[in-house]
Design brief:
Chains A, B: InterPro entries: ArsR-like_HTH, HTH_ArsR_DNA-bd_dom, HTH_CRP, HTH_MetalResp_TranReg, WH-like_DNA-bd_sf, WH_DNA-bd_sf. Two copies of one chain form a homodimer. Chain A has 98 residues and is α+β, with helices and mostly antiparallel strands. In chain A, 59% of the residues lie in helices and 14% in strands. Chain A is elongated and about 45 Å long.
Chain lengths: 98, 98
């Protein structure tokens, strides 16, 4: 955050992104995706690893996609999700306090 | 987050910290502190720069202190606040997704 005070727009954007990340299930999803070297994962894989239902995982993936933190890719009948590293780099920059 | 999936304790801790950071006024406070090279700041200085009342700023500083993101220091009648860089480094590590 060493480029000076945030603008109103930046405050609104980062508030929304940090709120999205702060949800425990979404933190767990991100942690599972990162734990697999950020390779694309399916809803089924995440549901199995985290121990939650597929609709619950889908709901949270939709929130993360809506915030621009992950991307959804469809190949035939298989849907996978990957993280968008730029968005996370942006959030890390906001938390750069030294 | 490349050390593998988060534990339940880590999920709870980071969920609390990201929720704390996600508040727009607290993001603005952190941005003001970082914008001044992370030098200690008083409640008065922050209230003036952000354009909010001292009680409002104090309330949010208390939340940030309670989460271990900033530290409060008292010297005589002057109270200042500084960021705790280790806590922010920890949050940046959680957001390391590439």
């Amino acid at each position: 955050m060493n480029k000076g005070p945030l603008t109103d727009e930046e405050v609104a954007r980062y508030s929304r992104l940090f709120s999205c990340v702060a949800d425990p299930t979404r933190l767990r999803i991100l942690s599972e995706i990162a734990g697999c070297g950020c390779d694309p994962v399916t809803v089924n894989e995440l549901a199995e690893r985290i121990g939650l239902s597929q609709p619950t995982i889908s709901h949270h993936l939709k929130k993360l996609t809506g915030c621009g933190l992950i991307a959804r890719e469809q190949q035939g009948r298989t849907v996978t999700h990957t993280v968008l590293p730029e968005a996370f780099a942006e959030l890390r920059a906001v938390l750069q306090m030294d």
